[in-house]
Amino acid sequence: MENFEYLNPTRIVFGKGTIARVAGLVPKDRPVLMTYGGGSIKRNGVYEQTRAALQGFDVREFGGIEPNPRYETLMQAVELGRRENVGFLLSVGGGSVLDGTKFIAAAMRFPGSEPWDILAKRAKVEDAVPLGGILTLPATGSESNGNAVVSRESTREKLAFYSEKVYPRFAILDPETTFTLPPRQTANGVVDAFIHVMEQYMTYPVNAPLQDRQAEGILLTLVEEGPKIMAQPDDYATRANIMWTATQALNGLISCGVPQDWATHGIGHELTALYGLDHAQTLAVVFPALLQHQRARKAGKILQYAARVWGITEGGEEQRIDAAIAKTEAFFRSLGVKTRLSEYGIAEGYDEVAKRIGARGSALGEHGDIGPAEINAILALCAA
Amino acid sequence: MENFEYLNPTRIVFGKGTIARVAGLVPKDRPVLMTYGGGSIKRNGVYEQTRAALQGFDVREFGGIEPNPRYETLMQAVELGRRENVGFLLSVGGGSVLDGTKFIAAAMRFPGSEPWDILAKRAKVEDAVPLGGILTLPATGSESNGNAVVSRESTREKLAFYSEKVYPRFAILDPETTFTLPPRQTANGVVDAFIHVMEQYMTYPVNAPLQDRQAEGILLTLVEEGPKIMAQPDDYATRANIMWTATQALNGLISCGVPQDWATHGIGHELTALYGLDHAQTLAVVFPALLQHQRARKAGKILQYAARVWGITEGGEEQRIDAAIAKTEAFFRSLGVKTRLSEYGIAEGYDEVAKRIGARGSALGEHGDIGPAEINAILALCAA
Q1: How sure is the predictor about B361, in pLDDT bands with cuts at 50, 70 and 90?
Q2: Are B37 and B65 within 8 A, CB to CB?
Q3: Which fold has domain A181-381?
Q4: Fewest CB atoms less than 10 Å from the CB: which of A357, B76, B95, B331?
């Protein structure tokens, strides 16, 4: 096991009927800025529940945060927050609203003139407005971590930052808020959580048996619960299991003391920025191809994954690796998420992905050596 | 899954050579009280490393905190801390020192005249001196939770309290500090962590597949790593795995949304208070007997445990339950921890245990119905 540091100060309030608890968690002394997305919370009752809970609070609103939240949009909220002396940000929505709210929180107190530097130049976040979340879409884990991804319309960039300062103070997870999610978002959430685990698990063995089992536990749960939730979207127990599992997939726990990959996300972000694919769609496309491309170096972990998650124990090593990759892709497809670039109408020109990553001078993967040539080879594997 | 709330704000700093990090984690503005136990930290270099790291800090010391820390001793530290205007408590040692330090932290700011009320009358802890820990014995999980158990010499009581206010701000876990532990303490730590999981797992199914797998992951790791650490006490990788696993066993995570038992601890505390057995020894005695006594009501989980932890899948249900109980007891014995009251020289009179628990008016277990009669039956099962 490698040395590590772990901190996760988010208070989780989980279960049926918990939105009302927000009143005891948000400070009342200054205006609260409630952030949300395209308005689904107004259709499923979450908006009303939240406003009802916050009676007596000085609440301002900022709606319209997009999936893949845009810098241009978020900067309007930063201006509003500063102008209105907002002391707390309350994100009501999924991972995009949370990510956007984290950026607003950091940007509101960013001393420089260009908060984009937090993303593009990795400028350190020294301070942030405190924030909390009411989660309506289990997927990103953003409700209980310090990560955020923001896109910039003008340059078609999609970049990430991390700061301890933007961990939500609390996250309210009421599985009932997810009953009305469209199937595409439900499926995307399962895929997203699955790949989050893979980025932290599917590398090489470092004698960390507990972390491995914690990761495999999440994968197994998603494999079991994923099909159930697609078949019966209003089953509370299954929704609850998916919701808690997605949080555990990216709250920092399973990456303790182990190497991490994140190449799938690195490539995926460019596919979203260039072609507008859903985040999870890009992951479902890239990951099986990445596994194929890295099968020799990841062999130890792929074989363990094959045995423990899919029960694949028969046959030679190459056969078992083939079977594990096939099972993984088939799982995504069984949820209705396509796994080939061609299925999204992307036939050529995707070498732009490698160029952009190369231009930033970064190489990806747990060995830090997935460069433009490897990225092109991976994309060729999932082209058709 | 049941509704739940989860918070764990402790910063974990894990790995080789991390004790020096304490300097960046302890506030420098007021005197720091360093608490420790019987002096083993002076023999294994931890004391010197800590003092060296804290050069320039105003450090006071309070040594001599016992295993099963005593109220009478801790109140001396409370007096010292108040007198010296201590602003931070640094626990250097195992779970007993940590538990004792948590009590000191709460008692120093307790407004009433009798801090024992925190334990005996469950008086609410409204405030506590902040504390941190350098852990030298993986076992109790106290380094990353809000629990503490304190004994009172004069009344032979052993009682627990919980408060969010006494979570350590940080916990430094350097596995090298555990190389020199006596085998008995190493084995006790493995048993303690194992039973901590069982108290949160071995109840009845509530459709919480992730929590089950997280718990089973800890059990499997202890089953695999336990014998290794007894055979090779200075193997860093194994010590690291044991240390992280013990923390995960009682940091609140695996109890999220599931019922909890704690009858084994309830009975065990009395055995320690009355007969002076090590905490883990009491658990190794009581738990197999409790499983036996509760085999019908716990059947669902025992069968799952049998299959997933011990690979027991052949035979009828009763046979598999028998085999799982036998494996559990054999595991404790393989570590050198005895499992029968007679082996500790306790032949009779142990009905005092049930009387004391009964006198407090509490019934134990996940159904809250393990009363004096059941306790006597359980103790009879592990008598000889």
Answers
A1: confident
A2: yes
A3: Dehydroquinate synthase-like, alpha domain (1.20.1090)
A4: B76
Q: Of the CATH numbers 1.20.1090.10, 3.30.56.10, 3.40.50.2300, 2.40.50.140, which one belongs to the domain with range B183-381? A: 1.20.1090.10
pTM over 0.90: yes
CB B324 within 8 A of CB B305: yes
Shortest distance, CA A343 to any CA of chain B (angstroms)? 33
The two beta strands, B59-62 and B32-36, are parallel
Q: Does A313 touch chain B (CB under 8 A)?
A: no
* CATH architecture entry for B11-177: 3-Layer(aba) Sandwich (3.40)
pLDDT in tens, A164-176: 999 999 999 999 9
- pLDDT one-digit tens code per residue, A355-369: 999 998 889 999 999
Mutation target for A interface from B10, B167, B213, B235: give the one with most A CBs within 10 A: B213
Facing A14 at nearest CB: one of B13, B16, B257: B257
